[in-house]
User: Fold this.
Amino acid sequence: MNKRKEFFEKLSETSVKLLAGVSVIIIAFVFIFIFIQAWPVISASGIKLFTTNTFDTQISDAFYETTDYEFVEFGLLGLILGTLVTTGFALIIASVVGVGSAVFISEMAPAPVTTTLKAIVRLLASIPSVVFGLIGIIAVVPFIEDHFVTTELQLEYLDQFQITGLCLLAAVVVLTFMIVPTVIAMSVDAIDTVPNHLKEVGYAFGMSHFRVIWKIILPSSRSGIIASITLAAGRGIGEAIAVSMVCGGLGIIPDFVKGYIAFLAPVLPLASAIVNKSEAMSSLSVKSALFTCAVILLLFGTIMSISARFIEKRMLKASGNAV
Assistant:
């Protein structure tokens, strides 16, 4: 009986190792395949890939290129900055609202309300992104057009870009609504794991409820909160469908020197560019350019993952816990 049990334990261990190895190979293959497809544009563009903003005109030239001319030089600065700005603003709002909502749900709301809100948040987190895009087109875009866009503004910036409700602000709003349920759901789970005896110690020392939350609950659950924000950032950077429906579709560099007009300018994040320009992939140059966008998105994801792990280690070290 012991031999049979030992055999199944070894079989399970071997199966897990085998599946893990296969997963690593598949991931490596995906990275290599994408990089090979993107190499023509990467090698031809060089540093200009990150320092110039000529994607909109180059994608058109590449699509209509002749068979004897290979147009492979691209500048993706506008797309990169559009991705960072859109995700950055959405993440800041989602982090503040998400963590605050998680604290309310876990520590302040009555039990029946807590149960209901948890179910609603998880339901929102599972809604397909295209639904948020449709809501953005129906509600967010018309609201921006009615309250922020004027004929005078449109005429003033007509030589630079067309001001409509399809803009950076719409993309930020839609993306915020998309990622905030993820932050709330995971932060609630992190806060719920804080042991009760830690809270009781705070109350025993005469700390108020708010101070217990600020000094004990949030520090104790910060690893889970950071994980929720990191996951939300990854979803935000990689989101394509919903953002592409409301962003305006032009790779313009956001110029905040102009004030709030920058939020009314159209943008084109990397993931949205892949969706919007996919119909032009019959051109080898366009195909390589879109795979280059995918390479940069993978690099962003890798950097975020490493940074999150580094921050977590520093926090554990600062709190005196073993890493």
The chain has a mean pLDDT of 86.
